[in-house]
Amino acid sequence: MMFEEPVHYHLPVLEDVLSPSDIHEILSFLQTELPAQxxxxxxxxxxxxxxxxxxxxxxVSNRESARRSRFRKKKHLDNLTDQVDQLKxxxxxxxxxxxxxxxxxxxxxxETDRLILESIVLQQKLAGLCQILHPMQLQ
Length: 139
Hints:
The protein has 139 residues and is mostly helical. It contains 2 helices and 2 strands. The chain has helices at residues 20-33, 51-138; strands at 36-37, 44-45. It has a two-stranded antiparallel sheet with strand order 1-2.
C-alpha cells in the first residue's frame, strides 16, 4: 500500500482575525465534514452530525464571526478617532494661520490708509507751492 505525502498549503497568517485555537477548530471541522470511502467500495459513508452538534458548531461559528465583527468595528472606530484628532490639530493650525493673515491684512490696510492720507497732504503742499511759483515765473 502506497502512502501519499500530505499536501501543505501556505495561507497568509491572519493573526488579528483567527487565533491558533480558531484555526485548529476550523481544520478539525473540515476534516470531519469530508466523506470517508468505505472499504467495500460499494457505499460511501458520510459523517452525519446530530442536530445538537450542528447547532453547537453554528453557535461557535456565529460567536467567532461576531468577535471578528467587533474587532473590525473597534479598529474602524480607532481609525476614525485618530482621524478626528488629526483634523482637530489641522483645524487649529489653519485658524492660527487665518488669524495671522487677518492681522497682517489689517496692518497693510492701516499702512495703505496712512500713505493715502500722506499723499493727499503732499499733493496739497505741492499745489500750494505751485500757486506761489506760478506768478513768479510770469514776471
